[in-house]
Amino acid sequence: FGCMFWIENSDITIAVENQQVQVNGSQTEDEYQAYRKHMASVWDEGRMKNQEASEAYKAGDIAGYEQARAEVERLGVKQDSVMAEFVKAYPRSYISLNHIYNCTVMDKYGFDRLNIMVRYLDTTAFTGEQWEVFSQRYNTLKRFMPGNEFPDFAQKDMFDTEVRLSDYRGKYVLLTFSGSWEKSYRASNPLRLKLYEQYKGKGLE
User: Contact at 8 Å (CB) between 174 and 192?
Assistant: First the structure.
């Protein structure tokens, strides 16, 4: 059998009895067990609601499915609140960082939700690859928040002429990102044309 646990550079003892592993001397593992206990109730609630949604879907109960999914979404906000309390209690823990990191790289957190957690971290406590990757992702997201200058970039247009965003400084610019193969994007082209025709006289590009 196999198992996973957290360790750090300290004196650690590992005992195995009846396929149960006991780790002593690892502060990070102790914090992980505290994290699991802290989050257990909201995780259990989420699993129950996901199960209800699955059963409703299989039964063809669309209204029941949508209601259960809406409750799952609301639980996400509740989970944030519960997790924030853990981060407050363990601001220097790699367990706190790991939760926030995973939700960030899996795109579960937008910047606003992410910031709720990050403001409780003691960022002086972390080093290593995970912290570097997270910091880069966090700072990139921060750059795209309203009020910040959008990063300049260049792209060739359909006539193979390079167009740079900064060339349009001082004007209103609508940027949309997609691929020409995306049907919903192509279908929305008339809307963008309508917006341009309506506002081009007011500086829209």
Answer: yes
